[in-house]
Each structure stands twice: as C-alpha cells, then as structure tokens.
Design goal:
The protein is of the alpha/beta class. About 50% of the residues lie in helices and about 15% in strands. The strands form two sheets. It has a five-stranded parallel beta sheet with strand order 2-6-1-7-8, sandwiched between helices. A three-stranded antiparallel beta sheet has the order 3-4-5, covered by helices on one side. Helix 1 crosses helix 9 and helix 2 (about 30-45) packs antiparallel against helix 5. The longest helix is centred in the middle third of the chain and has 17 residues, at about 100-120. Bound molecules: 2'-deoxycytidine-5'-monophosphate. 2'-deoxycytidine-5'-monophosphate (DC) binds near residues 9 and 127.
Length: about 220
Amino acid sequence: MVIAIDGPAGSGKSSTARLVASRLGIVHLDTGAMYRAVTLKCLREGIAHTDDGALGVLMSRTSIVFEGSGSVMRTIMNGEDVTDAIRSDEVTRHVSEYCVPAVVRNALVEQQRLLGSRNSVVCEGRDIGTVVFPNAELKIYMIASVEERARRRQKDFAAMGIHKSLIELRAEIELRDRKDSTRSNSPLRKAEDALELDTTGLSLEEQAGIIVERARALSGTNDN
Ligand code: DC
C-alpha cells in the first residue's frame, strides 16, 4: 500500500507520516529530506541551482538512503549521516531553489518510485499524490494556518538551539509556499482525489489516528 501525504511546509507531514508508518509497521519515506540532502551537497560543493550540467554529474554520484525506523530514522548521503545537517537554517533557506531543476527531480522521483514498488510506504512531500504516486491507495493533503505553522517551526528550531521570531518564520514560510506552489515543475497542489486534512488545533495523535483509520479501512484490517 502507498499512502501519499502532501502539503505545505510546517503542516505536520513529517511527524504525522512517521507516526502513521510506525503504527502500521510500514516504511516512512521523507522525500523532503532527499531534496534537502541534495541541497546540502550543492552548497558544500559550490554548485549553483542553475548549473544543470554540474547538477547532473552530482546526482549521478550521490546516493541517499534511510536507515533505522520510526523516530530514529537517519538520512545517509554517500555513507555520511546528514540527518541533522539537512535541517540547518542555510539548507532550509536554499532548498526551494535546488528542488526545481528537472535533473534533480527526475532522479529523486525515480528513487522514490523504486522504494514504493518494493515496500508499503507512507510517502510525504509536495508532489507525491500528483506526480510520484498518482495511483496511491490513500492520498492526504495536509494544511494548517500560517500562524500555527510558524509556531511549529519555532519549536523545531528552538530544539536545535536556533531562535527566530514568529514574524521572521511566517515570512519565510509564506515565501517557501509561494515558491513551492508556483514553480512550473511539479508544483505543490492537492490531488483531486486527496482528502484534505486541516491540522490547525489537532494533536499529532489525532492527525495520525485519522490517517491510520482510513488506511485500515482500505486494507480491511481493524486490529489494534
Ligand atoms: O518537507 P520539507 O520542508 O523538508 O521539504 C523541503 C523542500 O523540498 C520544500 O521546500 C519543497 C521541496 N520538496 C519538493 O519539492 N518535493 C517533494 N516531494 C518534497 C519536498
């Protein structure tokens, strides 16, 4: 089974997908982490997001895999654990540039489809229900108010020792939303057959519970 979860930055996709995957005992595929890993590598190597030639070479020598499961899932790029490095402020500010080039998207979408063809997955991102897995059995489009999303980001950053104001975070989120939803290649949008889930005011448990219930109803299992 493929469960596709899409939505804007801070809508709660990652934490929800992680919990859903652990409840259902299936793989969690965080596609944003893959775009972040590529961004980190490009920033380190000084490769511009407009340099298709260099990006193509970089993609051909970059492997991104996930190790572990549940809350201890690590992102490994060419053998290096980049789980924390890909959440840096710098990577976050630049990722919406590096996720645009077709040479980057095509390579990552291919890897995502391969993983989805081998395992039952909860796959989260921006184009999962529309492009990566248009035939996913269950599609969820998560949204939340900008204020709530800024508050969540502030908490995430605080846990990393980074302190940012809500006004600054709100502006960053709005900019990223605009870039993600107006790009011509695989923009963020709700698939027609996706269930919209507004997570403003919902707890993580509640969000995950709604998705787990739907998934179980679809697969005909009601245990637990
Ligand atoms: O979910 P996230 O914030 O970690 O994603 C980081 C960026 O990657 C986000 O700005 C948009 C991009 N992205 C994408 O273009 N397509 C995806 N399937 C997942 C993420």
